[in-house]
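Hi,

I'm pasting everything inline rather than attaching a file, because the server keeps stripping attachments. The sequence lines come first, and each chain or strand is labelled.
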Amino acid sequence: MDSLSALAHGFSVALTFQNLGLAFIGCFLGTIIGALPGLGPSNGVAILIPLAFTLGLPATPALILLTSVYYGAMYGGRISSILLNIPGDEPALMTTLDGYPMAKQGMAGEALALSGVASFVGSFFATWGLVFLAPQLVKVALLFGPAEYFALFTVAFATLGGIASRNQSKAALAAGLGLGIAMIGVDGQTGVPRFTFGEVHLYDGIDFLVAIVGLFALSEVFIFLEHRGTEKATGDSSGVKVGRSTVPWPMLKSTLPTMGRSTMIGFIAGVLPGAGASLGSFISYSLEKKLVDKDGTFGKGDPRGVAAPEAGNNAAAGGALVPMLALGVPGSGTTAVLLAMLLALNITPGPLLFQSNPDVVWGLIAALFIANFMLLFMNIPMVGIFVRVLLIPPRYLMPAVAMISFVGIYGISGSTFDLIVMVLFGVLGWGLRKLDVPLVPVILGVLLGNQMEANLRRAMTISDGDWTALFASPLSIGLWLFAFVGFVLPMIAGRFFRVKVKPAMAEEMDPD
Amino acid sequence: MNLFVTRLAATAVTLASLTVASFAAECIAPANPGGGWDFTCRQVGKSMQDLKLVDGTVQVTNMAGGGGGVAFAEVVNKRNDDGELIIAASSATSTRLAQGAFPGNTMDQVRWVASVGADYGIIAVAKDSPITTLPELMDMIKADPKSVSIAGGSAVGGWDHLKVLIAAKKAGIDDVRTIKYVAFDGGGEAVTQLLGGAVQAFTGDASEAKGFVDSGDIKVLAVLAPERLEGDFASFPTAKEQGIDAVGANWRGFYAPGGISDADYDKWVKAVGAVYDSEEWKATMAANGIAPLDLRGTEFEAFVKANIDEIAAISKEIGLIK
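And the predicted assembly:
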């Protein structure tokens, strides 16, 4: 077992007092950064690069600090998703669907603790995957050409039905809206600007973080403003129940199979450079819903709906390190920053990295294990502190949310233009909530639309416009079949098990 | 709650003091973290700090948008006399200036400081490809343009695309618009697609491909440099040696706001020059496949001007601009 002895060597590199301290600081800062709306893992890592340089850290400790922040932010993103219905970063988007209803039912503590455990399971096993499977998985990533990526994104949209809303057509409208927003910007395949109205800020398209913070956080603030003066807005929160801050054993037991499946799916999605953590958590959630949601409890506070996306996105975070280390191809915004860091430290990622810099690679992997345990032990006791956010009266909480949103978005781009776009998205989100249109498919459209289009057009360029190229490999045929089954099966199954559903969205919308 | 807020505040204060306290210099990377401009800012900033050319650290600001256009407009309109500021630039900047993709902005509105190196273009194929020389590849394209898809990391009309067109033009392909170029998000993704077999050839910078060249996964057909590169790339022939006189250099360097004093301008030219002369920078260049390109002050300004004129001419020829 070469890998195991190499890993043991890695632990000998990573287990120094200084490195443990850095991992602790990284995990703590990461959790906070992840929880703040607008600040996600990629900003968190970017913010801390100067710190690593200032401290004059050598390669391995610097990477330990930054990957701890990365894993920490992936853990932290769920906190505001569950407590406030505002995703802390894009992979935590799906966690709002069941996490927030759980919090409203007085089970915020359980939801936070459960998602902490799910995050741990996801990233723990993904890190083992990184240890044993990295070289083999690189071959999987190479199987995906443009046609296969297009089919993969089709799977994501085909399984969208019924995920965020009981009303399929509203979900489809929302996804269409998101896809439309994704089209803004310079088209990479022709170099022509689309829907930019000569505005240079729009050339790179709409940053999905701006869209997420506007649609979720600011619209929440607008809804609060709308209800100002009424009892709903000003009423004190003494009656709020936060639940216990541990996971009851039966709940944990019932979610374990979910965590296992979601970890695998998330990990594979993470390994594919064009997919990433958001797709991982999304497909984990939608598959789990299709597999186990017999009573229609998903979307209303089902613990499995919290465990699936959290295990999925944390596993994807581990998976995304595979192409970064072994191919030098970043699978996500965060790994792009980590890659830049590696280059800045004169380490060339690529197929030879495992041989040429074993200290760095195995020290890093050992640090991931350490960070993982640290995060678990840090997060479970902190649940009791986090849930207290719910006890803050909305009249104090909402202004703070607005402030953090503005600071966070300004911090990303340093441009006031993005702030205006964010406010526009806030108004849009407020309008969509009034119309009961779900917001999650909008974000999915924005997140995945560009990649989906780009891959379709790449496939078409390569095949000279021959559409059959989309179905040319066994892998793409498999993905298309999967998409077809995912799209059609619920319609047929729905006829037999039609459950009378009360308009659940109306309750979900109220922010109190 | 109080504890949480206190901790949060403490974190914010620590972060603020660590990142804001000692700034005397700022480098704008006109893109998100992780790209080439970000690398240029961070790496040169780190060297300036290590060589004690600036007080404290060099703050790197990521100002993404418009392929660098947002940062360019911001510098011209709002920070025209900020003597503490430099902005990372490369061939991508001159390409967009040449194609009028920064609406209303021209190269005269800023002052060009110095280059820190060049990344020469390469054209490569997968290791098991039957093609072994650049003329062979060009002959295949001549015979049937549809048979070869070339992947690159820039958008259509971007530098990776233009490099291939320059080479094709020199190889005697008249209608370069028939060449199939597939745009990917960055050189890494494009190389991955080459390895996966989705495309037949790759165009990019030497530094992007270094990891794969070292491992033997890709075969470099030609380096688009005036003469052979040093170090690991020394064994690969230039296009010129193979009878195709094409050079494609992705230079990296900096510009500064247009309204700064000559003293501030000279300060920056000296500081960037000192980084270039340092052993540390030479090691960085060697490790990342960056070739020497040492142009400072007015010399650099003239180079950028010539670069923009050249790109404008090709872009017109292939109909990208009128």
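Chain A touches chain B through 69 residues (CB under 8 Å).

If the labels don't parse on your end, tell me and I'll reformat.
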